Amino acid sequence: MKYPSFTQENPPLALYALLATASSGFGQTFFVSIFGASLRHEFALSNSAYGLIYGIATLCSAALLIRMGALADHWALTRVTTLALVLLACGCVVLGLATHWTVLVLGFLFIRLGGQAMLTHLGMTVAGRYFHLGRGRIMALTAAGFPLAEAILPAGAGFIMAQNWWGGWRLPWFGAAFFLLLVVLPLLFWLARGAQHPAHMHSTDSAATPDSLSRAQVLRDPGFYILLPATLAAPFSVTALMFHQSTIGELRGWSLEMIATSLSCFALGHFVSLFAAGPLIDRLGAQRSLPLVLLPMGCGMLVLAFSATDWTPYLYLGLVGTTMGGSGAAGGALWPERYGTRHIGAIRSLAQATLVFSTALAPFLGGYLLDTSASATVFALALGAGIALSIVLVFFAPARMRIRV
Predict the structure, then answer these.
(1) Among 79, 94, 87, which Cα is nearest to 114's?
(2) Looking at the domain assignment, is residue 275 inside a domain?
(3) Worst-scoring range by mean pLDDT, 154-163, 181-190, 311-320?
(4) What's the structural domain count of the chain?
(5) Please, are residues 365 and 240 in contact by the beta-carbon 8 Å criterion?
(6) Which residue, 11, 62, 171, 353, is the most exposed by fewest CB within 10 angstroms?
(7) What is the mean pLDDT of residues 194-203?
(8) Distance in angstroms (rounded) separating the CA atoms of residues 9 and 18
């Protein structure tokens, strides 16, 4: 079987990275949002109370990831993969069995930690650690797992719920747990079986020595803090937009059917942009690519702010999706490009935890803006201003920090 040239370093691990990010979808907001109305009705929760529960669980998962993410540098890939998938599957079971709203906190914590946090972290870490040639295209392939999950998982869960089978909204969670343990876990375990242990790569991998920085050294690099907002701008903005999409639609007079169909433009833009993002990153480097990939989302916010026609949601969500593809690939390639791969698990866990923290705040801050302004224009301009600021900051970041010995 002939594999694409940029995966030749390790084809099984290239597929592992793609499937890991796709499997993280069971713990992502776009999947959980399908159950929002059912959970609020079942447990008599207001919108703000439901958002608070979800935010608390997400914040806790971000804190735990800082500690657990470093396991990718010290444990065999098969072992840490098993941990992530078992956490995610347990969270699905807990949500399926929930009889009180307090149980939702534990269920959300497990699926956010095992899915959004750990599996995303593992997919990107594997792509950064085990691939050095064509890293941008490998990162783009890995990031393709997200639009793949966006296209399949919510639709699958919605179809099951629409059939009114036994269990109602609980059935998709049980099905997800079985699928993760009986299909995804054995498949990822098989793909990761030949992965070299991270501890054994130090003496043989020239890309990991001697220029690799530790997490403590990275925390002393001003460039890390200058570049971090650019890696957070897209996921923060998309979480705020998706979580409050129905409110934006009400303010603009868009029907639920229009909003639902326009999300296909988001997924399409997300997927198609990955084909351009990989070669762009390999050509220019991740740091120089970041401002370019953020531009479409900035333009999308201007479209949302100053247009309210029937084509607006399709255009602005398509532009936002375009940035999500490029931002995911560039953000994933940035840290190994800048800091090496020896400690990439610890470094990425810090960046990923910050990302998870930002996505926990996004629904609350976005809701506050909408509550106080009652304006989609103000909401869009605020997000656009944050994106513009993050683009400007990239140009002030030093190219590379060198280790002082």
Answers:
(1) 87
(2) yes
(3) 154-163
(4) 1
(5) yes
(6) 11
(7) 73
(8) 15
